[in-house]
Amino acid sequence: MPADLAVMLRAAGHDVHDVHDEGLAGADASPVLAAAVQEDRGLVTFDLDFADVRQYPPGSHAGMVVFRLLDQRWAVRDVARAWGATHEDGGGWGWA
Question: What residue ranges do the domains of the chain occupy?
Answer without folding.
Answer: 3-95
